[in-house]
Amino acid sequence: MKYHKALGLLLVSTQALLINAEKVTFKVLAVNGQPTLNINGQKIQMESPYYPLFEAEADVSQFPVQYNYSIDYGNGETKDEAFTRKREQNEDALNEFFDRQITILNHPRLPRAYEELDTLELSKLYDDNYVATIIVKCDENQLNDLYQNTSNTAVKAQVIYASPYAVKTFNDAQILISGQSTRQVPKLSYKIKNLKNDKGKELYNRSTIKLRAEHMDPSLIRDKLYGDILNSIGLPAAQNRFARLFINGESIGLFNLTDDITSKSYLEATFNKGKQFSDEDYSLFKGDFCPSCESPGFGDLGYYGEDPTNGMYAIYSYKGSDKKANAEEHFIKEFLPLLKGIQDYDTSGDASKMPFDIDTFLKYMAMEFIAGGVDNYWNKPGNFYVFKDLKKNQWYFHDSDFHFTFGCGGSVTAMKTTPLAEYPPLLEENVGKERPPLDAIRKSPENEEKFKGIFQRLLNTAFHPKAIYPRIDSLANLIREDVEWDIPLPKVNPNPTLDTDLKFTMEDFNSHVTEEIDVENDDRMPIKSFLSTRINNLVQELGIQVPTEFENNLGLVDFSSIEGEDTSNAISRIMISITSWKLFIIPTFLTILYVKLFY
Ligand SMILES: *[C@@H]1O[C@H](CO)[C@@H](O)[C@H](O)[C@H]1NC(C)=O
Ligand SMILES: *[C@@H]1O[C@H](CO)[C@@H](O)[C@H](O)[C@H]1NC(C)=O
Ligand SMILES: *[C@@H]1O[C@H](CO)[C@@H](O)[C@H](O)[C@H]1NC(C)=O
Ligand SMILES: *[C@@H]1O[C@H](CO)[C@@H](O)[C@H](O)[C@H]1NC(C)=O
């Protein structure tokens, strides 16, 4: 009997351990080294089904279970995560990232100001609830040559894109340095091309992406935020998400993964519902701003006669892909008629002559005004594209480059205080206030009323403090750990000549994303400080009000539920249910045995 009792007790405790035990899968992404799972006092060596994913299974009887990972770098160095992770029962086994606590963060969504662009096909690539990981492998010497001369041609590379849901490998990709003046700064920006896997599949329908460093913004979220609001307004916008970058095993830093506006895959997704464009189906031009250049100019979209060699036309460049005609021929055939059309609209007031959609243009300008786009069309005519769907005979204005916004990029006081009636402030010698398409549109009192209505609608929706502030906080929370990782990393440019002393700290980051008090600083100020002054001034000038609560009669902008492969982790769910079924049999068997022995 004594023996039986002892055995009974033993079985009871075994049963307690196993009664609800499940085999649970844990997955971690590790760029270097061999990870171990630390759980229930055990250290479980992890296996790699494919790089950079590592997996292990553990028996778990109590949820939430606490665990974390360690890495052995193989050179005598190891690293333990300094925090505890938690997994609830039935929670998906996502690909976690070593040493980052946040795998997924569901951001508060912005209310939609206007209907979504009807030619848009969203890409799963821009699910923004996590920081993606990009791992590049390429020839080290070629890479160093690229850093020495950033104009060098692309270097062949293997590029891995890893998310909490999937790992995608592209063996035939190419990497090069992107940007203009940013080629001189310490943290370089990259372009990755030819993202097609062995089966010809692209990265969620994008074959080219940019990784923008944008060292000039201590908050690191301004461009993303601007793009989010453009999405809420339903305007064409390069999409944007955060990604950490590693090259040849080295940590490079946190970047903006964004669209390359000139890439056909982007244009198709934005203007053609993802369907293919042939080279002759569309035309694309870029307008720049350079009043101090050798041949000074700025892209005000004004008509300066039929002579294509006019100095004011030198600032535009053809960015389409049709090689059958040269750039000048495209300019004459496509771009000049656009400028002429704007002029005809201006002189006749006949809206049918206006090549741009008037509402769309006004919405972009309202956005520039509220967000303080110091480097954008209305203030400095440049930094935009114009796109034409040749088959539909339809032009679109396409704004771009939003790092100098929300109180960053200089002239902050002017951006914050210049009233609508006097905008733009005259910040540049030899650049006046004339913006031909906008001036022509605003001649009509009806359009002026429309413009005011757009401001009101934006303040009621995406710019409402109760909508945008929590989103700013959440975006900042998502990247805070990665910013902390990025700041001390050595920067790769061997010969930086610009902004070499521009070094931001965690304190700058935190103040730029959290503070709201009015600050006098003409170079840069916290996002909310800028917005609250800007909005207060606008509301007073127009005699309008910001409602107590935001409106969401058109719903919320949601990028996390975009359909596409890899959204659910069906496979690991199935594994859990099969193993728990096995484990169910064992305790039941033990219970029967126990009952038999005891009675
Ligand atoms: C890491 O996880 C193990 C196992 O759960 C735990 O004992 C340890 O305290 C954790 N480390 C930290 C820093 O939380
Ligand atoms: C850099 O590379 C470009 C393109 O390959 C070349 O034209 C230029 O001369 C190079 N510059 C230097 C300093 O080597
Ligand atoms: C790619 O585009 C196709 C066609 O528009 C669409 O059906 C598909 O869902 C897209 N795939 C991803 C992964 O976004
Ligand atoms: C993203 O780009 C914008 C400007 O284009 C910049 O404000 C921001 O700092 C960038 N963020 C990161 C993580 O590189």
Automatic annotation (TrEMBL):
The chain crosses the membrane at residues 574-595. It comes from the Eukaryota. The keyword Metal-binding does not apply. Pfam families: CotH. This is Coth-domain-containing protein. The keyword Membrane applies. It comes from Anaeromyces robustus. The lineage of its organism: Eukaryota, Fungi, Fungi incertae sedis, Chytridiomycota, Chytridiomycota incertae sedis. Residues 1-21 form the signal peptide. Keywords: Membrane, Signal, Transmembrane, Transmembrane helix. InterPro entries: Spore_coat_CotH_CotH2/3/7.
